[in-house]
Write a structure and sequence with these properties.
Two copies of one chain form a homodimer.
Chain A: E1 17-18, H1 21-30, E2 34-40, E3 43-49, E4 51-54, E5 57-62, H2 67-73, E6 78-90, E7 98-108, E8 111-112, H3 115-129, H4 142-146, E9 149-154, E10 157-163, E11 181-189, E12 193-194, H5 206-209
Antiparallel strand pairs in A: 1-10, 2-3, 2-6, 4-5, 5-9, 6-7, 6-11, 7-10, 8-9
Chain lengths: ~220, ~220
């Protein structure tokens, strides 16, 4: 990954900026959804959508009629941001409350994806959410491929921001009686809920029953 | 809440649009972070930040030097989006995979908050993340209040989008042998990790040890 551009250099809390390719990839891979920002009629609009990373390319998908994705297809600049919350930072002072988190911001002009790359991207999006799933579903037929718009955004301008560790209170506040520390958070799955129309005799597959997201918390 | 404006009317999947005030409030209150979209140098930028709702006003806060918030303070239009993931929708076809989610989009021109409202907003932001916490911390001193920028965005243009329920597969796909259903997801807390510098004899308070987020999943 190139050095951060002026725009993706973290402006605030520079010590939290992390530019290593591995960190950017890991955060993008763990986040279930991204938030896609475009300019619509002169104003910013942010909507959640599902993404997948393949190498140094980020894919997002949606319906061809989606206003968000049409704007991206037209070659306008977009912003894709993902955020993972690893814990609540509980400080002695209200001011120093924070969160432990990992976030990535990707800027760039997307291109519309077609052909074999499009089929592979749709497969990657299913695998991104549930690893192991794509081999156990009916693959998209040509009409479904046509009925989905896929955009590709290179990870040329991408940066990560990470906070870890305990609260950082003012020195004098350590004498206070308030508890301080970190409450770690994570996303967990409950029991799988079979479709009411599931045919008898189909067991829950391991890629569903053992689904878990990696977490650094 | 007024009827949705043309801009906040859900364009795609209209059946998922939910405009009731109670739903918008509940989603904003449950989401730990929001994604704030602004236009910077002509391009969209999306960054995560912490918010709080008080009545029909949404507050966001940050450092006064924050580029994001300065842009909002200047009276430009911003977009605040929150998303809760309630479950993975596992379909028989790749095409019908989805997520159960609740999201809210708020559009508008924020105003900078000052005086007593600013102090109350900072308190609300602490309470938003950890209900019951603000009474057990050192309150912000005047320098800390000055050292934080708070913006208020009215919930005049806000809409929710919700997906619930099992997968909706094509009729013919119900004969396939693939498992289908929903894998519910939720955010849970692990064991509180005391600050290494915590004074001896300070127990974990109930607002930390019993922290939980409401969830409709």
């Amino acid at each position: 990954m190139p050095a951060p551009s002026e725009r993706t250099t973290v402006k605030r809390r520079r010590e939290r900026g992390v530019y290593e390719r591995e960190v950017v990839h890991a955060v993008l891979d763990e986040a279930l959804v991204c938030h896609l920002g475009v300019i619509a009629d002169g104003n910013p609009v942010v909507l959640p959508t599902i993404h997948a990373r393949v190498g140094d390319v980020l894919y997002v998908h949606g319906a061809p009629a989606s206003r968000m994705l049409r704007l991206g297809r037209d070659g306008d600049e977009i912003c894709v941001t993902v955020t993972l919350i690893d814990g609540l930072v509980v400080a002695r002072s209200a001011f120093h409350h924070s969160m432990n988190y990992r976030s990535v911001v990707v800027l760039g002009r997307p291109r519309e994806v077609t052909g074999d790359e499009k089929v592979a991207a749709l497969d990657a999006i299913v695998e991104h959410v549930i690893p192991g799933r794509s081999a156990h579903t009916r693959a998209p037929d040509p009409g479904e491929v046509t009925g989905t718009l896929v955009l590709a955004l290179p990870l040329d301008e991408a940066s990560a921001k990470v906070r870890t560790g305990p609260p950082v209170d003012d020195e004098a506040d350590h004498d206070l009686d308030h508890w301080a520390g970190v409450l770690p958070l994570r996303v967990v799955a409950g029991d799988p809920e079979p479709d009411p129309r599931l045919r008898p005799g189909i067991a829950v597959p391991a890629h569903v029953s053992e689904w878990a997201r990696p977490s650094s918390s």
